[in-house]
Amino acid sequence: MKVLIVHNAGASALPSGELSVVEAQSEALRSMGIETRLYLENNDSIGRRFSWRRLKAGLGIFFSFHSFRAIESILRQYKPDVVHFHSVLPLISPAGFLACKLRGIPTVQTLHNYRWLCVEGGFFRNNSVCRDCVNKTILCGLYYACAKQSLVVSVLLTLVNLLYIKTGLLFKLVDRFIAVSHFVKDQHVAAGFPEGKIIVRYNSVFFPAATRQAAAPQQRNGLIFIGRLAPAKGTAILKEVINRLNAQIPITIIGDGPESDALIHFCRQAGIKNVAFLGKMEKNQIISVLLQAVCVIIPSQVAETCSMVALEAMACGTPIVASALGGLREIVEASGCGICVAPDHADGYVEAIGRIAGSPSLQQKMGNDGKDFISRQCLSAGSQNKLINIYAALIKKRGFAAADGVPS
Q1: What distance in Å separates the CA atoms of residue 61 and residue 58, rounded to the nearest whole number?
Q2: pLDDT tens, 258-286?
Q3: CB neighbour list of residue 224: distance below 8 Å, 6 or more residues apart
Q4: Does domain 209-377 correspond to CATH entry 3.40.50.2000?
Q5: Mode of pairing for the β-strands spanning 198-200 and 176-179
Q6: Which secondary structure element, helix H or strand E, spans residue 5, and what is its range?
Q7: Per-domain residue ranges for the chain?
């Protein structure tokens, strides 16, 4: 079996969680004997100021002739059995789907975000969750100029969604969609996606079991936050939690972002000395810190689709205190790995953290429940077999002769 993986990544200076999932998935497939090729475009080529490149990218969001030619060339030379798309906007556009359709090659797209439903991409407006485009009309994103606070960008993305979703054209170009949680599937079905074309598959976790177990301490200590320090990720709540805990527990913050300096300044001004800011870290370093922590706090104010921070914490047996939103709530409640609280209720986070920190038996139970969930749903072998079976079914349906390595 030969698989072409296609992804429109963000800016190379700010690699996203989606990109890490895409790269890890490609590597995992190779490790299972599946021949893969990865085609990436990143948004660096757009530029920041108004220019011909930016205008061209804006118009190409409907149909990129550049991407069509590039992908068509790869299809002709590489001859994949199936093409797995991830994000395609703004640069690749649905042109990649058409290139595959014209050659009769099956296509899959993973729904990592809500871009086909919401021009902002994350159901986030005015620092809180907003699903008006699903519950009311897609024109709400245009009215509020939700896409990068730009009316022009919002107009373009709204027109793309109207062209490909409301007409049903996308569903003729893509054979299967993979939703990274049941919540993501439900939102897309509510917006008009055909339910029978969507399969739920949680993101896989990709690091060796030995890495997770070797350094696991007998007794854990401290609270950890991992992620981008931005309003959407709950920095306002994190600030309140730090203040309310009042040096009761060591707090480690991994990551940076637009709110990083403000949070550091707040801690200094308030004389709070139990918070360590570690900035960006490599995956193995993050795992090492996760293995030592009492719990992880994920105070997202957006409807997370399938939080990799949550999955990696669970794989390490670390309990989670999270906002009761989206796929994040689904994962925590389905696994029993932690406690969900109202997104904007700082006292609820503090109470949940105290409950977990004060009970080693509860820590152990939640940790074991989380690891069990990961073992069943997200460890690379089982998860990749599910993905390969999706590919195989599409290849068989299209009458392609699959190569060796396709599970029965």
Answers
A1: 5
A2: 999 999 999 999 999 999 999 999 888 99
A3: 251, 252, 253, 254, 289, 290, 293, 295, 296, 297, 318
A4: yes
A5: parallel
A6: strand 2-9
A7: 2-112+168-204+379-398, 209-377
pLDDT tens by residue, 322-373: 999 999 999 999 999 999 999 999 999 999 999 999 999 999 999 999 999 9
SS3 content of the chain, % helix, strand, coil (to 5): 50, 15, 35
Residue with tokens 């707040």: 266
Angle at the Cα of 15 from the Cα atoms of 252 and 326, rounded to 5 degrees: 70
Query: Strand 275-279 and strand 251-254: pairing?
Result: parallel
What 8-state DSSP symbol labels residue 275?
E
pLDDT above 90 covers a percentage of the chain that reads: 67
CA distances from 107 to 5, 86, 330 (A): 10, 11, 27
Structural contact between residues 91 and 46, judged by C-beta atoms closer than 8 angstroms: yes
Higher pLDDT, 82 or 386: 82
* CATH code that applies to domain 2-112+168-204+379-398: 3.40.50.2000
- Rg for the chain, CA atoms, rounded: 22
Q: Quick one: which of 219, 307, 250 has its CA closest to 18?
A: 307
Q: Which of 6-10, 36-40, 44-48, 78-82 has the lowest mean pLDDT?
A: 44-48
Neighbouring-strand partners of residue 83? 4, 107
Q: Residue 53 CB: number of other CB atoms within 10 A?
A: 12
Residue found under tokens 């058409």: 98
